[in-house]
Amino acid sequence: MGIFERYMTLWVGLCILAGVLLGNMIPGAFAGIAQLEVAHVNLVVALFIWVMIYPMMVQIDFSAIKDVGKKPKGLVLTLVINWLIKPFTMAALGWLFFRVLFADWVDPQSAGEYIAGMILLGVAPCTAMVFVWSQLTKGDPNYTLVQVSVNDIIMVFAFAPIAAFLLGVSDIHVPWETLLLSVVLYVVLPLLAGAWTRHKLERQNDGQRLERFLHQLKPWSILGLLATVVLLFGFQAETIIAQPQTIGLIAIPLLIQTYGIFIIAYACAYWLRLPHKVAAPACMIGTSNFFELAVAVAISLFGLHSGAALATVVGVLVEVPVMLSLVAFANRTRHWFGS
């Protein structure tokens, strides 16, 4: 394990701090970067995510994907967690905390918006970042690709109906261009580029050349993650500083949701006797969120400065360090599972 992976939590922590400090010191620079977007998808963030997941796409062996269907339990697990459990537990926790436990501290309108933002996070399973978590847990890249792809297809059809049901409205507007563009930018394009690169290297019949190329790319994947963290926290730096108490209140149910879903998924993976290289990514997909989409939809529905938008930003604040802790746990418990 290299220095990047060994001290990942430290690097992410420093990048969160750097993002918040820079966002408050030079807000104009981040405001300018934030305007570089198409269909609510920030192009600079998309570039860094692209840098982050392209090396992982090169690892995918398309000739092995056909064998995924022979082991469907990992795919079934992530689908059940993402679409039958996670959205509903998120909505229940949001209601419990902001309608009951925190009712005296938050006005009803703000509480409703915070719950809405949490629901949007719960209905958007992770797309791009999960390739990072899969790599850090030594997951099967081919299986991870299939899991993410199937979830993306379902998300196109299921996101709006589930969100509408949980939000209690019938005319919810989902920016489909944001959803489709995000999938193209974060999955399709890097996947095609990775497949082309692997094909070119394999045509030379030199496995060492492919391994050497992957080794050279690996640090860039981590750098892409760290740059993304700096940008995301830089965009929301002023909000984080201005509303620390509210952010703490929102973070509590999000933390319970994240760890709770992982426990459920990990226990099911153990019960199903999944190999660790399938179990770990499956649980990471079910635990993490497609926060780029959740933020975009929250802004579209409720406005840039709404409680819903704030809740989705807190989701980003919570997710990266929490997911790194879960990656560490999954790696320490590798011996619980088969190879």
Give the SSE map:
Blueprint: H1 3-6, H2 8-25, H3 27-34, E1 37-38, E2 41-42, H4 43-58, H5 62-65, H6 73-101, H7 108-122, H8 130-136, H9 141-167, H10 176-202, H11 207-235, H12 237-242, H13 244-271, H14 276-287, H15 291-302, H16 307-332
Antiparallel strand pairs: 1-2
Helix pairs in contact: 2-3, 2-11, 2-16, 4-10, 4-11, 6-7, 6-9, 6-13, 6-14, 7-15, 7-16, 8-9, 8-14, 9-14, 13-14, 13-16, 15-16
**Helix/strand order, N-terminal first:** HHHEEHHHHHHHHHHHHH
Assess the beta-strand content as a share of residues. under 5%
Lateral arrangement of strands in the main beta sheet: 1-2
Question: Given the C-alpha coordinates, what overall shape results?
Answer: globular
Please, could you describe this protein's structure?
By secondary structure, the protein is mainly α. It is 79% helix and 1% strand. A hairpin with a 2-residue loop joins strand 1 and strand 2. Helix 9 packs parallel to helix 14 and helix 13 crosses helix 16. It is globular and about 65 Å long. The protein starts with a helix and ends in a 7-residue tail after the last helix.
Summarize the structure.
The chain has 339 residues and is mostly helical.
Key traits:
339 residues, mainly alpha, two-stranded antiparallel sheet, 16 helices, 79% helix, globular
